[in-house]
Please model this.
Amino acid sequence: MFAADLHIHSKYARATSKDCVPECLDMWAGKKGLDLIGTGDLTHPIWRQELREKLKPAEDGLYVLKEEYRLPEAQKYRQTRFVMTGEISSIYKKNGKVRKVHNVVIFPSMEAADRLSQKLEAIGANIHSDGRPIIGLDSRDLLEMTLESDEKAIFIPAHIWTPHFSLFGAYSGFDTIEECFEDMTPYIHALETGLSSDPTMNWRVSALDKYILVSNSDAHSPGNLAREANVFNTELSYRQIYEALENKNTDKFYGTLEFFPEEGKYHFDGHRKCGLSLKPSDTINNEGICPVCGGRITVGVLHRVEALADRQEGHTPNGSKAFERIVPLTEVIASAMNCSSSSAKVKREYERLISDIGSELYILRNASFDEINEKAGILIAEGIKNLRNNNVETIPGYDGEYGKVNVISQKDRDRIFGQIKLFDDESSITVKNKNSDVKKILHTIKEERTTETNEENYGLNEEQWNATSSTDRAVEVIAGPGTGKTKTLVSRVAFLIEKMNIDPSDITAVTFTNKAAKEMKERLEKHFNGKSIVRKINIGTFHSLCIKNFKDVNIIDEAEALDIAEEIINETETPLSPKKFLGCVSMIKNGAGSDELNETAFEMYQNRLKERRFIDFDDILLESLDKDRKCKHLLIDEFQDINDLQFRLIKKWGESAESIFVIGDQIRRYTDLEEQMTNALKSLRMNLHRSKELNL
Model:
């Protein structure tokens, strides 16, 4: 068997990542566990030229990346096979209605792609501007033209239920396949169901029984490969793939790997502008009108399926193929860490798990729970167990907004942490420094119940004092909830001032919230019996510390930023809300990247800020990288939560530091935080020009 994702895009399609190039696609297919991927965008001349340069023939009708283009990271994976594919948007008028239908074409050779491209250019189609070209050709005629280019071409209506651009779309589609393709209907053998539906929904429509239902990612970035995929039970060759999709009565097409349909962008009805998500019955009751603003409600996939269904829920037709529901591994990790799937720490953990266990699909589908528990931690193991058992919580997507799938419930957390408390006794603190290996303290050191403390040592127990009083240049403290992290950090500041005679103005303590900064100041004021010393200490969040560098700068407020975002969205037709747009901008600036916002729109936003002489909060940090800040003694709270941009700031500030002290949560059993922090400190060490050698 092999897994295949046959609908993706190159960097030449609109709103796609610049990393959608053969070498990156090859590497990511290996990470994901895909054996075969489509090239995408086969009608684009420059893309075909790049494919000719970088690919070479493999098995019948398939290609592989030339060895000289393979990335070092990809060498450990089996070479990915490529097949020529592309998506074409047909916009035309038929039967008195404007139709907008997307179709996927698959060819056995680059030469066949050349022939179709020449035919499209001959009728005036602009195939140069977009990898997914928009043409004014009837879908029936496009199918005929495709088969004229190669009789063994595969033609698949794409994401057939999407409201605006699909075969059955609520606003521009058809009610039957025959109405769309007429006499060419017999040449349609497979249908792509899209992210917002799954086989159980499609099985309710008896007219679809004779077709193979395929699922693909429609990825606009390499990281989104395999969010849906197909499983073939045959050898890798174009001929076998063609035969598998042509004849449903064979076992050559085994089944599909599916999104939870609720996670798709158009599962429910709704009105994104008003934040309104509706079931089909609610839309009917409101006569299709948004009750908030009076605008039109976008009819979603579930509604459209129910409109065409002639069967009740739960029906399984004869000859139906197997399917499994999956969730991207990054979302499982994020659920375990209780943070965004786009965060830097999730990405680091993803790369570690792929390296330690195997491909993403292997981890999600096949790896044993014991192996996952050992290498990924109990929470991630529990999340994958829930996924395999379809035991998840969902919030349906609507009107272009992705839904959410949570694989770890609060009940799961309570149960798991309850077990940990029973078997592991209490949280522990771990100190790493030059003179000691990592040591685990098994007794309780909770701040409220500390034992064997020494008042001369600020009332700290032995382990807290070891961390506080270390004289090493860089110290890493890993401590669980309730172990006295704040007390240890405050005591470290007091130790520097009282025991090491450090000038308070030479100390910088970074917290993640204003609340945490306020608490630290209050504790220090209590310790020093006043505010005079504490005022000299630089305590605050990254932003509050950096903003002191900007005296005559206008910081844009949220309303103005949203206005600029909306301008750019309208000009570029970016499919995001203004709030989501700004969120993607922030992710890019903080080093997490964004698959949903292209480079052009991002640059337009930055230029608009400059034109109006504004900066935003993320720019405060970015521009601070170019400004000198003397941090002789640097302390970082909640170190596990830093993003890439914040880490760059820490390295910058640490270049002249005499000491660096970081403290974070003890969550090794879930994220291997110790390794993360150790690696980060090693990176810091390289930038400490006056440092002693660290022995971590």
